[in-house]
Structures are given as structure tokens and as C-alpha cells.
Amino acid sequence: MRTVRLNDKTKEDILSSLLKRSPSQYTEYEETVKNIVSDVIDRGDDAVVEYTKKFDGWDASPDKLKVTRQEIEDAYKEVDEKFIDILKEAAENIREFHKRQMHESWITTKEDGSILGQRITPIDSVGCYAPGGKAYYPSSVLMNIIPAKVAGVKRIVLATPAMKGSDKVHPITLVAADIAGADEIIKVGGAQAVAAMAYGTASIERVCKITGPGNIFVALAKKACFGVVGIDSIAGPSEILVIADETADPKFVAADLLSQAEHDELASAILLTDSEKLAKEVSDEVDNFLKVLDRTEIIEKSLDNYGYILVADKMDDLIDAANDIASEHLEIQTKYPYEVMTKIRNAGAIFIGPYSSEPLGDYFAGPNHILPTNGTARFFSPLNVDEFLKKTSLISFSKAGLEAVHDKIEYFAKQEKLTAHANSIKVRFDQ
């Protein structure tokens, strides 16, 4: 891996490079996505079927787009029991973590009898997207569906493409969806899946919100449909940033950097360290791992494009850089990791200590692995129960309560030149 000294110039160059991976930068795909979305709006199922045949390679028809209960039962027979048990345990960890995020409605009553409060209600329906086709990601299925289930969403739809050239969704995906609690599963992927869930078709009822990661076409389709439906965020490529000092194990650090670099050529893997010695050792370990790992071509391109070892003299400079980069995954492998953790403001998820490797969060620990990317951890949070809840304000003033403040409200409204607002209050106290 390339090793460079951390300074303002190198940091700005790296930030600029990383931001180019944002889905918002891929304008050449936007017209294609816009056309697909418009076509689904205009032609409904016919468009969905046409794009499914074109991109996924199977003879789709409206009556075949939904997974049947029999297909789910058959899927259980194809997945080994050990993995089913692991999926169930992971699901329980995820469920217990997200239960702690739940809020309660509240009401407060003033002395004059006026009531203020907040009512928490789940969104009626949600569409969860999980990548498929060439690969399958049961972890994303669990992370999408379970928080919605915990929140109390009544109708949860999983959209995922069938395996290439087949009308079958991967059996592991189906088992994961069933364990998580999906109410419907549709064999549709890409921009057409997002458009179908956003606008609805004859066979696919529209939803209120769409969540989950996907390729550039899925990301841009979510962006295009936002406003008609809610979305969680627009996901970009995977990324990991490790802060480490001389106490870190270089083999651990190297292995963790590569765990994200193998996702795709646009993934980023960055080490921030105050140790020249560790920088050299980690680079050597990366080279050693590349001799034995799969997906080495993808990893090498990822590291060539977006892999860095940044060296600085002071830990505070490393922390400042980490906050500026605002990585999806941030590992802290230092002598005093919790002290460093308290200074981190911007990160999707923080992994503390040498035995908190990033894949622990991907699969099993419980916190959500659908995280903000491309610096959006500065203002976005991981997918969580709040994404599936609505907060409604409650206001019930007594006559005495309004009478005590009506002059102030009327005056406020007149300052904004909104006399009808003022009058709406005034008429209640006209003699």
C-alpha cells in the first residue's frame, strides 16, 4: 500500500478522491435511471417484466414476480442447518440491539389543562432492497428487515433479483428473509424494483419508504424517487478507516483493511498511524495476504485507487483526519482506544480494540451494518428503528391556556404579515 505523510494537502487530495465515488457523481447513469423509473410509472408490470428479462435473464411475468410460501419452504431444505442456526442467532442479536432504540409516546399537561405531546407510530409499509443476481447477502436482508419489524411496520416487502438466468431467488436469501419476518418477497432488482415499490404496479403495491443498499442504478433510483417515498440514504461504495499506534498488531490491521477492499474496485481502505514502523509492517502484511486471498484482482484495484497509509506525528492529527473523512467503518487499535473514541465525532460505526474487527459488525454483533458512506456520517446515522417510525406532535390547549398567550401569537403573526394567522387566534376572543 502507498504510504504518505499526512498534511493538509494530502488530506484534501484524498477527500476529493473519495468524494468522486459518490453516486451523485455518476451523472452518466442518471438519464438511464430516469427513463427506467418513468417507464415503470407509465407501463407498470409490463415495464418491470421487460427489464427483469433484459437484466436478469429469466422469462418473467407479473404472476411470477412474487415468491410463494412453497418456494420459501423449499429454500429451507437447501440450506444447511448449521447456517440456519447461525442466521437465527445473528437475527436475535440484531433484534435485541434494535429493541433498545425504541421510543415511547409522551404527553405533558400544564396547570391550565393544556396538553402537549408526541405520538410515535410506525410507517405503514416499507420496501427493503437486498442485492442479488450474481451474489447474495443474507446479512443485508437481516439488517434491513429486522429494525422495521421491531418498529412495528405492518407490511415489509423485500425486493431482490433472482439468480442470473433463473426465476429462483437464492435459497439463503429466502431463509434469511423468512427468519427476519418479511411479509412479501419480490424477484425484482435494480432501478425497476425501486420504481415499482415507490409508485406501485398492478402486482406490486406501493410502499411508504425504501431502505437498503444496492448498485449505482439502485442508488440513483432511490434518489430519483425520493419525495414520492422516503429513503434511508443513498449508499456509496464500502470503506474502512483504521486508527492505530505502535501497540497494534500489523497482521490484524492489514486483515481488516482488506476485509473492505475486497468488496469492489471503488472500496476504500485507509490506515491512520503515528508509527512509521507499523506503517511498514502493515504494508508488508497486506502483500502477504494478497498471495493467499481470493478476489485479489478486485483488492489490488481498490488499494491502487483508494488505499492509503497516512502517517502523522500526533494522534490528534490522526483524529482530526478521521473526523474529516467520516468513514463508514472506523476501527481504533491503539493503547487507549476509548480515549480516542471519545474524540471521534464522525463515523458510521466505531469498532474499539483489536478484537472488534469490522466483519463482527457486518454479520453478528447486533448493530446495523447499513451505514452512511462517502462522508455522510457527518450528518447521517446507521439504519435504525427511527427510520421506520414517525413522530407526530400533539397540541391541545384549553381556553385559559390560549387566552394567556393569544396577544403574543397575534403580534408574532402580524410581524410575518400573515393577518389570517392572527385572525384565526383573534376570533376566539372577540367580544
| Number of extended strands | 14
CATH topology name of the largest domain, in short, is Rossmann fold
Distance between the termini: 81 Å
Proportion of residues in helical segments: 40-55%
CATH class value of the largest domain: Alpha Beta
Number of domains: 3
Under CATH, the homologous superfamily of the largest domain reads Nitrogenase molybdenum iron protein domain
Outline type:
globular
Give the biggest beta sheet.
6 strands, parallel
User: Which parts are unreliable, with pLDDT below 50 for 5 consecutive residues or more?
Assistant: none
What proportion strand?
Answer: 15-25%
State the helix count.
18
User: What strand order characterises the main sheet?
Assistant: 1-11-10-9-12-13
Structural class: alpha/beta
Rg: 25 Å
Mean pLDDT figure:
95
In the CATH hierarchy, what is the architecture of the largest domain at level 2? 3-Layer(aba) Sandwich
Describe this structure in words.
With 431 residues, this protein is of the alpha/beta class. The chain starts with a strand and ends in a 5-residue tail after the last helix. It is 46% helix and 16% strand. The chain has 18 helices and 14 strands. Helix 14 (337-341) links the parallel strand 12 and strand 13 (349-352). Helix 5 packs parallel to helix 6, helix 8 packs parallel to helix 9 (216-225) and helix 10 (250-261) crosses helix 11. The chain folds into three domains: 3-22 and 237-365, Nitrogenase molybdenum iron protein domain (Rossmann fold), CATH 3.40.50.1980; 25-231, Rossmann fold (3-Layer(aba) Sandwich); 398-429, no CATH class.
